[in-house]
Amino acid sequence: MITKTETLGPFQPLWTAWNEADSEVKAKPIRHFKVATDVQFSELETHLGDHNDKAAANEVIDVISIALNLMRKLGYTPDEVAEIARDRAEQRMRGQAISILDKYQRLYSV
């Protein structure tokens, strides 16, 4: 059984690490999270270009941390984030992954 301290599984420590900045995170404008994500993707691309897979993986974790903090800003608790993630995976992604990829290819050429 998952306890409250394990709600987000391996991502719980990311959430917990940011508890000390909870009010600051919640005060940030939405744009902060977009810019922070853009910065992390830029760093990710640099690390991949340098063939530094470990550093690239750390940037991906930073993106997850930004996403979690955005959920925090939106007022969600870890329990609610976990429930939303499970529901989204089941209702939007399961059995539709290929069509989602096709949509992004068709609409955005990626």
Question: Your description of this structure?
Answer:
With 110 residues, the chain is mostly helical. The chain has 2 domains: 9-75; 77-110, no CATH class. 74% of the residues lie in helices and 0% in strands. The protein has 6 helices and no strands. It has helices at residues 12-17, 22-27, 30-49, 53-73, 78-93, 97-108. α3 (30-49) packs antiparallel against α4 (53-73). It is globular. The N and C termini lie far apart (39 Å). The model has no long low-confidence stretch (mean pLDDT 95). This is MazG nucleotide pyrophosphohydrolase domain-containing protein. It comes from Amycolatopsis xylanica.
Summarize the structure in short.
The chain is mostly helical and 110 residues long.
